[in-house]
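user: At home tonight, take the chain set out below, taking as long as you need, and be ready to discuss the fold:
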Amino acid sequence: MALAAVVSLRAADLAEIRAIIGNRVESGKAVGIVAGFLDEKGSVVIAGGKMSRHGAQTPDGDTVFEIGSITKVFTSLLLADMIERGEVKPNDPVAKYLPATVKMPSRNGREITLLDLSTQSSGLPRLPDNLKPADGANPYVDYDAPKLYDFLSRYTLTRDPGEKYEYSNLAVGLLGHVLALKAGMSYEDLLRRRILEPLGMESTSITLTDGQRKRLAPGHGPSLNPVKNWDFGVLAGCGAIRSTVNDMLKFVAANLELTDTPLSAAMRRMRSLHKSTGMPDVEIAMAWHIFTKFDQQIYWHNGGTFGYRSFAGFNPAKKEGVVVLCNSFTDNDDLGRHILESRYPVATSHP
């Protein structure tokens, strides 16, 4: 259902988006999908499917989903904001903000910096080797600071920090942790005070209120069976946020500077740095990845927990943005790219 169709997308484009969402639901690839698009003229939200596989309630722009790794963009925004405030510097060693008992790994005299964590070039692995969950259905919930400190103190880097891109949940989870330590509050409190409240993102949090929980779309695994929600412990900064399409459109609008917010300078700082990922047509800024193709630049990040997939992206030149949230482990990145630039192909699902 479209909430407002005063956007640059043509009626044919909106019909195509509805058809793609409907196809993925009807083919058994997804339980529910909500997509939002915005530009300088306004916004539109299109949804399809159900909030739960055997329920009757349909999702909308206020339905709550896990957004997974899009959380990393929020964590890097916290870093950029703290840099703008003069609270930290981008090249500060991470060790500066950890307890003195933690032996942070380094190599060839090069220490891992806050910026290295943000740009996925720290040299740390994707996950720590002591992540051994008691509950495999909620794998991060019992990973705490002592376990993180133990891993960091034991780990030997295989290359210099800053040398090469390698995507790491551990690195950005660590970034969220050290920023919270610097601020003297929990990651969730820091997130709420510095980003969520200034942007008016009232339906976004880590710990759900009773009202948010009632609007939560249960997650579904690849076979579309219900699965547990994920909780992230000390690594919350890599994937713990829950949000809605309407709230995420506020976030994208702020990044496009379609709204006046106190975070504009920090968001510009995030976009100003471009580093190679070693992949064709893809660079990385501070957390945001950048597609450069068809003479367009699209800033984006996706996310996935076991029951959800998410995509958020925007084209600064066109002042257009998109959010796609799904309560199934079903890749919808192609839909997000296609909405922003129709020359990106989109897959068709079959029963």
Remarks:
- Residues 11-69+203-340 form a domain with the Beta-lactamase fold (CATH 3.40.710.10).
